Amino acid sequence: GESVGLHLPTLSVQEGDNSIINCAYSNSASDYFIWYKQESGKGPQFIIDIRSNMDKRQGQRVTVLLNKTVKHLSLQIAATQPGDSAVYFCAEKNGDSSYKLIFGSGTRLLVRP
Amino acid sequence: DAGVIQSPRHEVTEMGQEVTLRCKPISGHNSLFWYRQTMMRGLELLIYFNNNVPIDDSGMPEDRFSAKMPNASFSTLKIQPSEPRDSAVYFCASTVRGRSYSYTFGSGTRLTVV
To answer: Which of A39, A75, B51, B111 could crosslink A21 through cysteines, CB 3.0-4.6 Å?
Structure first.
């Protein structure tokens, strides 16, 4: 892929298994979090978001969990498919009025057929 | 909806040349962001606009970089003069301030400065 390089942590899973991608954030004042998916040669694509007043949110095949005590975010993908292979980024927004999103370094997900 | 449109998709230029990257946000979106993505630094926010006004340019690397948004449907990111370390993928994203924090990204411009 063109978008990111060789130094990303990589998670390899078997097709059909569940995937869990983790993210640690640093700013305790962050009040909103997003997961993005980036496929090779494309821009990041929104998957799911969660506000800091929640600890879990579910979408279609995806669940985001937020643990504010340890400043940890996770993305769970159920029944992982080959099309889920991509780089996944978490992003946080500071609890101010700005619309700035700060992105994490990303995790590469590889789905084995 | 055509999404966020960036041009060109690829740009190769020689060191010292001026480079202009272009972005058309989604119609109706009033916030626009420019990000740079590299292997070493990941996705970095360069600058963002609300209602065509630059709000925060603290991420702009240096004076060689400038960005404009003359109207709600067009923005440019200019590098003059370009240097090899500017080689990266540059993304534009937009959203509707007051409605959503989730951005829609364009497909990016891959810039190579030789």
So the answer is: A75
